[in-house]
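Quick start: load a record and inspect it. Here is Aldehyde dehydrogenase:
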Amino acid sequence: MSLEFLHRQELFKQEAYWRGSWNEGNPDLKIQVQNPASLEVLGAVPALGQKETLEAIDTSKEAFSDWSARPAKERAVLIRNWADKMKKNREDLALLMTLEQGKPLNESRGEIDYASSFLEWFAEEAKRTYGDIIPSHRKDTKIEVLKLPVGVCGILTPWNFPSSMITRKAAAALAAGCTVISKPSELTPFSALALAALAQEAGIPEGVFQVLTGYPEEIANTLIDHPDVKKISFTGSTRVGKLIMERSSKTLKRLSLELGGNAPFLIFDDADLEAAVKGSILSKFRNSGQTCVCANRFLVQKGIYNEFISLFSEAVLQLKTGNGLEKDVNVGPLINEAAVLKMEHHVENAKTTGAKLLLGGKRIEPGKLFFSPTVISDVSEDSLSMREEIFGPIAPIYRFDSVEEAIQIANSTPSGLAAYAYSTDYKKIRLLSERIESGMLGINEGLISSEQVPFGGVKESGFGREGSKYGIHEYLNVKYVCIGGF
Ligand code: SIN
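Running the structure step on this input writes:
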C-alpha cells in the first residue's frame, strides 16, 4: 500500500499553508520526507524559514482580531466540524501517518481518533471559559475577572505523534480564541498538512491555523523571538525545552513545555502479574517505544522478579516487528538512523555494566531502521537505560527489595512525566500516588492518555497541562477588572 491508495489524493499536500493559502515557497528549497520502513522518498515540502514565518505571524495577528471576537459557540461549531472531517477521512490520515512515521496502521488509526478527540473536547470547552464576579471590598466598585485569549500562538510538535500533538495544542488554543502557527517536525509534515487541508474544509477561517514546514530552528526561533507571538507550546526533548525557555525570556512568553520522560514502571510482589505483563507490553512497545510516557525502567520486586521476566519475555516474543502497513504488525521501524544507533549504544552500555541481554538487542529485517524488541535483566542503577530516556523498544529490568527503595529509585532522575505501578494493596497505592514524583501516574494501568485528562509533567519534564478542563487555560489570560463609580 502506498500514497496512491489514498481515497482523497488532495490530502497529500506538498505545499505549506500560510498567508491564508497553499504555497510551495521557493521551488529550489525543499525538504524530502522518507518512509522509515522502506526508506523510499514519499515527497517533499517547502523549506521555509524566517521570511515566511514573519509573514505568517502578520497573518495570524490579523486573523486574531476577528477569531477572538467571535462568539465561543461559533468557534466551537467550526472546531467540531474539523473533528468530523478528521473522522470522515480517518483511513487516509492513518495511511499517511504510517507511511511517514512508521507506526503500525492500527496505531495510526488510534492516533487519528485520539487527535480528533481533542478537537471534539475543546470545541465543547470553548463555551465554558467562565470568568468570575468577586464581591468587592468597596461599596462603590464592582469586580470582574475575565478570561481572554493570549493571542498568536506558536506550536512546535514532534514526529512521534504527528497529528495528536498538533490537535492537543491547536484545539485548546483555537477554542480559547487564539490563532495558531504550527511547525510540525520536518520528519512528519504530511500529517500536519492534511490536518490543515481539513481545517480549511471545515471552515476554519484563513490565517487562524497555519502550518509552516521547513528549517526547524529558523522557524522556531523566529516565533520565539517575535513580540507578537504571545505563547509557545512545545513537545519534545528536555534539552530543546530548556533552550526555548532561555530564549523566550527576552519577550517573556507564556510557555507550555511537555518534555522528555523516564517513566518508572513498578511491579510489586502483590501485583496481578498477568495484568502487569499486559500493561508493560502496552506501555513499552506502543509506537515502538517512541513515546514520552512509555515505560523506560521496569522496577520489579524480588519475590516475583523471575516470574515476571519469564512471562514478560514470552509476551515480547509474540510481538511482530515489520512494516506498519502489514497486517498484525505490532512494532514498526524507528524513525531514523540516529534512533537505531542510540538503541545499540544502550545495549552495549547495559552489557558493560553487568546486565544480561535476554532478548533482541540488534537490528532486524525487514529494513535498516528496525530494531528487535529487547529485554535486559539485572540492570544496575547506573546503567544508561536507567538514567536516560530510551525512546525505543528496549525494556531494562531492575530488581528491588522494599517499597522505600522502589520509590527512591523511581524518583532518582530529573524527569517527572509519567510513572506506573502495579499493586493490589490500597495503602501502597495511596502512598505511591503521593510520593512518586510525576505529573501522571498509572496504577494497574499501562495506557493512560485521553482527551479528558491533564497531560503534563513535573521536574525537568516541563510544565503546563494539555487536554482536560485545564488545557484551555494555557491559552487564556486572567484579567481583573475593577469598575468604579457605583
Ligand atoms: C508523547 O509521547 O509525547 C505523547 C504520548 C501520549 O499522548 O500518549
